[in-house]
Structures are given as C-alpha cells and as structure tokens.
Queue: 2 jobs
Job 1
Amino acid sequence: MEGDEEVVGVSTATKTRPPTVATRSTNRVSDLLDAAAVHFATQGYHRTTIRDVTSAVGMKAGSSYYHFASKAEMLLAVYEEGVRRVQSSVDDALRDQHDDAPWDRLEAALRGHITAVLDPSAYARTIVAVLPDEVPELRDEIATLRDGYETQWRELVDALDAPVDAQLLRVFLLSAANSTQTWFRRGRSSPSEIARFIVDVLRHPMDPTDPTDAASR
Amino acid sequence: MEGDEEVVGVSTATKTRPPTVATRSTNRVSDLLDAAAVHFATQGYHRTTIRDVTSAVGMKAGSSYYHFASKAEMLLAVYEEGVRRVQSSVDDALRDQHDDAPWDRLEAALRGHITAVLDPSAYARTIVAVLPDEVPELRDEIATLRDGYETQWRELVDALDAPVDAQLLRVFLLSAANSTQTWFRRGRSSPSEIARFIVDVLRHPMDPTDPTDAASR
DNA sequence: ACGTTCACCTAACAAGCGTTCGGTTGGTGA
DNA sequence: TCACCAACCGAACGCTTGTTAGGTGAACGT
C-alpha cells in the first residue's frame, strides 16, 4: 500500500504540526537557532548535543522537537541562515564598491565574505566549520546551498580574465578566506586588511628576483 | 591518605602493561592504525567509533584497549605518524630540489606537503581533518605537533623576503595546500601542478591591467 | 467566560558509545 | 614438554545520546 506514505512529513503525529513561522511573541526559536549556531560553529555537529543547545537558552532537550523535527533539521536551519547572511554581506560589500573593475569587485566580495565568517553570531562560521558529508543525511541539501553561493564566485573569478585555471583560483580564494576563522585574532588585522592582502598577493608580483618586479622595489 | 595515588598510571591493572613496541609478529597494531587513519580522516574523530576501526581489521572493540589506553590515544598515535609522514615527504621533496633558490624550495616543500596530504594511507589527511580543539584532552599535544611542523614553513616563507606579512602568507599557503584534500579529484591535476600553480600565482602578476605586467602577456 | 492552541516541561525510551574485565588460544623460550 | 605470555575474544558495564509521548499553564480568539 504505497498510496499515502509520509508525503509531506505528516507521519506519526496526528495534529501537532510545528508552525513554520512564529505565531506568538513568546516563541524562542530564534534564541534556539542563535545558540545552535554558536555550538555548531565552535564544537562541530557531532560534538554538539541537543541538550547543549537547549540548556544554553534555558530550555529542556525535548522542547527542541516542537520547533525542529530532528537535530539534522536544526543544523539545516542554521546552515540556510548562514548562507543567507554571507550572501547579503557580500552583496552589501559589492554595493558599497562603486568602482566596478573586476579586481576591486573581487576584493569587495572577499571583504564581505570574511566579515560574515568572522561575525560573532556564528551563523556563517557554521557553514565553514561543518563540512558537507559530515552529516550524510543532509549532504545533498548542504551541497546545493554551497553551490548556489559559489556560483557568484565563479562569475567574479571569471571576470578577472586571469591567465590561470579559474577553478583552481576560486577554490584557493575561498579556502584562504575561510581559513581566517581558524587563526584570526581580533585586533590584529581587520577583514578589509585581509581582503586587501589576498588581492595584493595575487595582483602584484612578490618575487624580488622577478625581472618584471624591478619597478616596485 | 594521599600518600600513594595513581602516581604514574599504575592504577587498576596489576601487571597487564601493553608494550610500547610490537614484540610478536602476529601483532596487528599497524593494521589498526591504518584503519584508524582512514576513518579519522574521512569521518572525523567523533563520528568514528572504536567498533568502526576494529571491525575494519576483523577485531573486536575491546581488543583495541590492549594496544591503546583510550580512543584519544589512538588518535594521537595516528596524528604523530601523520606529522612524521608529512615531514619526511617534505624533506624528500626538498632533497630532490637541487636549486636552492627560496621560491624553488617553497615550491618543492609545497609539492611534498600536498603529496602527503593526498596520500591514500590517510595518515596525513588526519592531521588536516581533525582540528586541534576537536579533542580537548589532546589540545596541547596536537598543538605542539603542529607547531613543530610549521616551524619549517616559517623559515621557508621568511627566506622569500616577500614584501608582505610573512605570517599571513604562511597561513594562506598552508590553508591553500590543505584545502586540496576537499576538492581534489585524481587525474585532473597532480600535486606538482598544484604546487606550481600556487607559486606561480604568488610570484607573477596576474592582473592584465597591471602596468608591471606588460611583458608577460 | 471559555475552549483552544501555543510553547513548553517531565519523564522516559532504546540505541549506541567508550571502556572494563575475566577468559582463551596459540606461539615461544627453557 | 610445559609453563608463560602476547594478543586477542566475549560479554557486559554505565553513561550519553537523539527522540518520543503525555501533561501543563498561560495567552489567545470568540
């Protein structure tokens, strides 16, 4: 009998359907998500327990399942919000950048990306910290989200018209920008400086023995 | 009575002391370590269970504790071997590199590093995949091991005499090299090509509009 | 005023985890 | 030949985990 399976998700529960949006002001889903983001970003998915997250906002473990059907769906929610925030941070940076030269646009995008990755809210950090196949059940969803975001970077890098493999360059750019999360210490250098550093390193020769570099030294 | 506590670690067990080195040929510690490396590298520390590792070599879970006092010590053993292999891979590459120009030495070291990171034995991949504070009880040991290895890179980067922050450059170099593990597909590009790509990107200007780049295009 | 619904809590469940401990076997040195 | 010990096995332990189910009270629409 395969007529009506759990089509949309209406399986065991008869009527207790967690609403997608908050309907009452006492709803604390956003607090839950905030705490989840912090824990996922700093401890990773598997080391984070539901009780870690809920107790951080004064909830009990079971209450989580009123809002999220599972731990994986909780991560997915954080992940989606993370992508949304990085994307909008990049958009903001690109909007502020009025010079539309390819290298300037790249630097602006880098600045936006790094800013989001270093944001204390930890949403963006989660999408860097937890890798796609760390949670097999979400592999496709996570991969899709990442791809959607990286599409923009494909265009940015292609626009450079650089004399190297564009795919390699894009991968290295993102890995360099993401790595800031591991070593960054506040106060030493800002996202803007890091973005500028990366672009400078790429644009200008840094080999003192390079014949084309005679002028800059 | 605090006279004789578990001073050195001789607590419960009376005489069953696992020997540090293998004494009999039927010893399968190396097989265990191989399997552990594969699982730690591909699944991470927390998603890997003792039963995963032992069953991969036809052992039972409890038998692991004849060789390793805990799961954490098992990881540490893999980690140490991983550092050893990356180090020797870099040493080999540097030895083969007869031109001792700083940039050539850097490229050789990168080649060695990437080769080790992409090695199917997975030991080196482990030290990239599992981050220092993923296992709090080993944080200091792991950090020490990493520092020891990175010292060499400090020297290599300093020798470049590049007109940028040496620390930033070193961090980006290693993160770029390590990121190969996530996207590398065998057959598309070799460790040598990737190493050369990274060095090329740094040494030579890739901005077509850069005035100093007129000659190379 | 009142029944309904939201947003939780309480309490447990089964599965899986790292770990322990006594037993077993086959190779080994004397 | 035989005691011995390295190198396991078998079976459990206690704990944590994600998850479920039923109950509770305050806020809400009517």
Job 2
Amino acid sequence: MNPRRRFCYNKAGRSKKVKDGQSRFQVEVAFISSLSDHIERYIKALLDQAGQGGLEIRRTELAELFECVPSQINYVLKTRFNSERGYIVESRRGGGGYIRIVRLEPRHPQGICSWIYQAIGDSIGMDEAEALLVRLLDHDYLSRQDALVIRSLLAEETEQLKPAYAGRVRASLLRSMLILLLHGSGNGR
Amino acid sequence: MNPRRRFCYNKAGRSKKVKDGQSRFQVEVAFISSLSDHIERYIKALLDQAGQGGLEIRRTELAELFECVPSQINYVLKTRFNSERGYIVESRRGGGGYIRIVRLEPRHPQGICSWIYQAIGDSIGMDEAEALLVRLLDHDYLSRQDALVIRSLLAEETEQLKPAYAGRVRASLLRSMLILLLHGSGNGR
DNA sequence: GTTTTGTTGGTCAAGAAAGGTCAGATCCCA
DNA sequence: TGGGATCTGACCTTTCTTGACCAACAAAAC
C-alpha cells in the first residue's frame, strides 16, 4: 500500500491551526474535523444545488476525491443520510451503477421525524400507538381520515400475531406509515 | 471492433452535467444512465403511444438504433418487461420476425386494492415487492416519490429480520403503506 | 414436395463495472 | 483508559455488456 496523502480535499476546508509560535490552541472556526464530516458537508452542498430529484454520485469518484476507501462513503451514508435524518439513499450495483441521495423536504417542522422514531421505539402497544396518533392529530400533523386508516390497518395487521411479535410489527407499521405520510408526495402522481 | 459512438439515441435524452468546474457529479434530473435503462425508457415511451394491442419491434432494428448487440435487447426484455412486472412478450423468428410487447393493466374485479392484497399475499420478497412497485408506478397508481419512500422504508424495516419473518413483515408493511396512500386523505383514489 | 438458403430471434456464459458488507484497527474524548 | 465513532481493506454480490453458437421460420431452388 503506498503511503497516502490523506485529507487532500481538506486542505481548503479543514480547520487551520494558527502559525507555530503564536498559540498552542486552535483559533479558527470549523470544529467539524473528521473526514466523514467533510464528506457529509460536501454531499449536502451538492444537494443544495440539486433539484427535487436529488443527487446522483459515483461511490468510487467520491472516494477518489477524498482519497479514502470507497466503503468510507457507505459509512457516511449510513450514519448521516438515513431516513431518520430525512434522506433516502438508493443505489444500484453493476455497470452504470450509482448512488442516489434524496433529501426529503420536511413539510413539517424538522425534528418531527426523529421524534416519531424515538416515541415509537422497537416495540409499541396498541394503547401507546393510539395515544401517539391522538397527539399527532391534535397538532395537525395528521388528518382524521389518515388516522382512521392507520388505526384500522394496525389492528388488522397485528391481530393474528403473538404478542411478542405484535409490538414490534406494530412499531414498524406505525413508523412506516407516519414517515410515509410526512415525507410522501402528499398527492399521488 | 470499431470504436463505437454509443448512446447515439441518448444525445437528446440524457442527463446534463453541471458546467465544468462546478461539480463532477450529476445534479440535474434524469440520472438513469445505463444502456439498458435507455432502451427500457425508449420502449416504454413507444408503449405509451401504442394502443391496447401492444407494440411490435424488430430486435435488429432496435439494436442498431442503440448501437448494441441484439442480445442486449433480450436482456432488457427479460429484466424489465417480464411477466412479474406486468408485461407479456411474444416473438417470432425468421423472415418477417418480430417481438411484440404488451403491457397488462393490473386489474381485479374488486378494484386496485383487492388486486394489491392478492398480489402481496402472506409474505413477499424484496424482488417481488420491487416489481409490484414498478408496476404500480408504470400505471400511475403511485408517485415516484412515494415509491421511493416506500422502497426505502421496506428495506430499512426488514434488514435486521430473519428471512422467515422478513417476508411477512414486508408484506404487512407494503400492504399497509399502499392501502394508506390509496384510502388516506392524500388523494381521492 | 423436399431441400437449401437466408433472415430473424434466443440462450448462455464470460468478463467488466459498479456498489455492499463486515471485522478489525485506530482515533478521540469524557 | 474505555467506549463510541471513524477508517481501512479483503472479499462478496449484483447488474450490465458482449459475442459465439443455436433454433425457428420463410422463400427460393430443386
């Protein structure tokens, strides 16, 4: 393995230390310092330029740009561009492969999604689910009709399950339906 | 092999890159980039124009249009226009040979929701789910964005599960999300 | 009516071209 | 100084593209 000149990209963007002798402490801004953080910022900058359709990147190119291994890109995507944070990542392997990143426009105050993730957790009971729906209803994050449909689907889909699984499946279902409503197109087509 | 000027057809249709210097990545729409994808889109465009009876093509002609080997066309047909995705392909060899492609409307006496229930069943694999989404997309029952979100949620919610449960949970999730979109307040279908 | 020849489309497997996964090494901060 | 966050590299899977060879059908030749 040839010794790599790492962090090449960062020459411009990383935090600077003050010249030797002047001070032993970092004085410049840019606390953000890890490679992952830089890749994250770079992708976000690209996303800002991109339209609704999102952004398409080549894993290898990006890795070359930052002089890191390709799997580093996966790490960044997994930790920073997951759906809890409001992103969707799709990819395809093989010739013409790509990674597409879409930022879901928060049609509601950001934070509501991660709040939902937290509130639901790994498993949730019917009562808690109901309480959560009521709460979302009260705050107008949810329409009456959607709440009705969700309620009925939750019941229908979990009634046959053993309690142990029911809670988990219910959590999955509730989470998915809510996220879909919050992020989906709102009107088909 | 003479160096081929590939993607001739695509001159007009392919995605634009941002001006040099701005970014090395595609930021505009229409990302789809492989030859197969272009052939797929071309055929679908033809299908949209064609009536109920479907579309008839010459394998060789199409291959010439895209400057590829004829078997590439078979690949596209096999992977994108199979019966799982709701297409029927028949062909005849010899002089006057042809390939006919027919797109089947997903129909059920009781309507699209019943069709969905039936198509999903108790358990469904990721591939089947994908095919179903594509089919609904092709027929405009679903928006791109919703499909994107559903796909990503399906993957996320089932990735940790043992295959035996994953199929069932996936079925529940897919069914619920689709029914919610169709019956919820978002659109009146 | 056969046989031959030309015209189409079909199959399959090899190789190329992406991206994915995962365990272990490292880094870094409380 | 221990644990979580990062990084790396070896190895894997998926998807696409190509070309050699095969099979079916039609029209011409016999």
